[in-house]
Amino acid sequence: MRDQSTTVGLTLSKETHLEERKMTMSVDLVLINPRVVGSDKAPPLSLLCLAAYVRKNGHSVSIIDAQAEELSDDEVRAQVISYKPILCGITFMTSQVGIVRRLIKSLKTEGGPKIVAGGIHASVLPKETIELGFDFCVVGEGEQTLVDLLYALKNKSSLEINGLWSERFRPREFINDLDTLPMPAWDLVPTKKYEVSQPDLRYEMEPGVCMTISTSRGCLYSCSFCSSHGVFAHTHRDRSPSNVVDEIEMLYRKYGIAKFFLVDESILGNKKRAEKLAQEILERGLNVRFASSARVTDPGVNVDTLRKLRKAGMVRVDFGVESGSRCILKDIRKGITAESVIEAHRIAHEAGMTTCSLMIAGHLEEDWEDVYDSLELIANIETEFCEFGPLTPYPGTEVYRKAAKEGWIRNFDWDMYYISNPYRVMRSRCFSYQEIYMLGLMCTDAARFMINWKKKKGRSWHDFYSTLKSSCIGLKPIGRYWLAKYMITRDREFLRRLSFKQLKWRPPNFKHPEDASLLVGIRRNPMSIFKKENKKRLFKLLPPLLLNRLKESIAALLYQTIYAFKLVKFVKTTSSQTKELEIFAQPEIEVPAEAHQ
């Protein structure tokens, strides 16, 4: 959470904003998007949908986005008090449990509003969620349940409501036709403050430039690591193309947003729908660019469909690959093959799109050979971006159940369950807790190296020198040297030379999760190093890490030079051997008898 003693100008702007809110009339419902671990500022799409539906049904509503507006708990509390709501709703994910617990404690006042929880974590663990201090918990889709709850509170009627957790819980049916829902309430949130990965460059974000839009709900597949079924069960419902483009057009014309990421488990799952979406955008003359996720085996993964989408402005498709190992893909029930992954990437590029390959490091049954399978797959596909995220056992997933049964989970503090945490809560059959994190670092850097290698045509000493350089948490020159040899020869033995010792930054084997959280916090906010309560612990943690960083930086300059020269020599030797083999492989030419005479 951001330090409240910030600049005077920012403080004044917040006070002014708060005064403006105090001048508004009271509302029935306040929806809160709580702070998250990190600096991400994505639009709270679920709250936008809830707010719009509640408003359509005659109730007044407001949204407080604590993350986008960088609000402390006290500032959130002040805004809630100013609205005098009947009900306050909070949606959150597993890693936000601690943040939400503190927020509820701040909001709980005598005569204050009732507080209701929603979201994936609340739907999977409703009883535990109530114990955080909530008065109510919505399980599953929340629109109609929230409206019924508001009606009951206003009229002091029965609280036995479908979808509202109780000892006699009755689930609520899903909304079959998503087009019957009103357009999300974008007017209630600070659109200019959201930062979303841009379609052209996946790792580039700029406030107010790109926006996310939810185009469907649920997923029909059963990947063992996914928790989306906690809210939507095994259903998948689409918004119609015209309905989706209505929202795109509104954001385009009213807010000037021309870049989008379409949140959909698979935008290409329905070929006709995808093509109709492209047609709608073109017919309305919208000059937009967008990206979305897809499954490599989707019917819409064909050149014709993708070319139509490309013409409408779709420039990137993100494929969920997860692994290159046949055994692991089967174990996680992904239902795809390495061959289908390669073909899907080829088709996307033929249609003029870039791709992102999303991978997972540290599958429960993954060993080193499975890791090499994944790296070989990345080396063999056309892709511009690749990310290996360490496997995280979210509650409600098969991964969580299996890991808990095997005794591989060492910490059940939900605050620790975020992907970027160097303190890993789960080990696997073949890798330790710390190794799971390092595996993600190693594979991500290896994948990016191989992608960049394929882009470069020259193979001079300078080319080798520049490709051997990595980020501060990537592989050392020696690790990239073995990768270069693999890319030249495609000999798997060179991949087998990779090891954790070749990482520039090897995180300590954290025994206390607070130490990992402290280092993550400093990386995100360097000024927090001066906090009094941090100094004693940091004095033990930082010196060895800084010393190692300095040593590695100096050594890297020397080894980059040495290995660059070795690669030049290796290429020359390999080329000459290849030519000799080609000569020996030439078939014998039959000489006509006349030539001997």
What is the beta-strand fraction?
5-15%
The name of the CATH topology of the domain at 22-155 is: Rossmann fold
Count of DSSP helices?
Answer: 21
Measured between the Cα atoms of the first and last residue, the distance is 94 Å
Which residue ranges are poorly predicted, with pLDDT under 50 across at least 5 consecutive positions? Answer: 1-23, 581-597
Overall shape: it is: globular
**Strands side by side in the biggest sheet:** 6-9-10-11-12-13
Task: Give a count of the beta strands, DSSP E runs of length 2 or more.
Answer: 13
Q: How helix-rich are the residues, as a percent range?
A: 40-55%
Largest sheet: 6 strands, parallel
CATH class of the domain at 22-155: Alpha Beta
Please give the CATH architecture of the domain at 22-155.
3-Layer(aba) Sandwich
Mean pLDDT: 87
Radius of gyration, whole Å: 27 Å
Structural class category: alpha/beta
CATH superfamily of the domain at 22-155: Cobalamin-binding domain
Q: Which structural traits does this protein have?
A:
5-stranded parallel beta sheet, alpha/beta, 6-stranded parallel beta sheet, Rossmann fold, single chain, 597 residues, disordered C terminus
How would you summarize this macromolecular structure in one to three sentences?
By secondary structure, the chain is an alpha/beta fold. The chain is built from 21 helices and 13 strands.
SSE map:
Elements: H1 8-22, E1 29-33, H2 45-56, E2 61-65, H3 73-83, E3 87-91, H4 97-107, E4 114-118, H5 120-124, H6 126-130, E5 136-137, H7 143-155, E6 210-214, E7 216-218, H8 229-232, E8 236-238, H9 241-255, E9 259-263, H10 271-283, E10 289-294, H11 303-312, E11 314-322, H12 326-331, H13 338-350, E12 354-361, H14 368-380, E13 385-390, H15 398-406, H16 433-455, H17 461-467, H18 477-489, H19 492-495, H20 513-524, H21 535-584
Parallel strand pairs: 1-2, 1-3, 3-4, 4-5, 6-9, 9-10, 10-11, 11-12, 12-13
Antiparallel strand pairs: 7-8
